[in-house]
Amino acid sequence: MALIECGECHGDVSDKAASCPHCGAPVMQLAEVVDTGDRLTTTQQTSKQLKEQVLWAYLVMVVGVGMLVLMPLWLNAKGVAPTPYSYGTGAVILALGVIWQVVNKIRIWWHHS
């Protein structure tokens, strides 16, 4: 049986006691931490694969927005009139990125609950 210091009142407390006899503060958790000597580690709940999927979906959305904005400008610079297809390609890629992002967010939510 060893004496440890209370974290609240700094009085001497047995390491077997559940609480400090002076102030009533719980000390059992402190004793368990002192006994194991392990540091507290936190674990990220979202896997690396899901984070990469989110990153790729954002990249697809940026490419879609870029095509939606830049493709008609590029066609105008070449002297070609933009067609609905020039807007449609960027819009489809943007929509795919948004859908992919929504699916990823649902997967992350499902993984956490």
Q: What would a concise description of this structure say?
A:
Keywords: Membrane, Transmembrane, Transmembrane helix. The protein has about 110 residues and is mainly alpha-helical. It has three helices and two strands.
Secondary-structure class = mainly alpha
Radius of gyration: 29 Å
Give the N-terminus to C-terminus distance in angstroms: 42 Å
Count of individual helical segments: 3
Major β-sheet, in short?
A: 2 strands, antiparallel
General form: rod-shaped
Strand order of the largest sheet: 1-2
Structural description of this entry:
It comes from Aeromonas caviae. The chain crosses the membrane at residues 54-73, 85-103. Keywords: Membrane, Transmembrane, Transmembrane helix. This is Zinc ribbon domain-containing protein. By secondary structure, the protein is mainly alpha-helical. 60% of the residues lie in helices and 5% in strands. The chain is built from three helices and two strands; from the N terminus they run E-E-H-H-H. The protein has helices at residues 28-36, 48-77, 84-112; strands at 3-5, 12-14. Strands 1-2 form a two-stranded antiparallel ribbon. The chain is rod-shaped, with a radius of gyration of 29 Å. The mean pLDDT is 83.
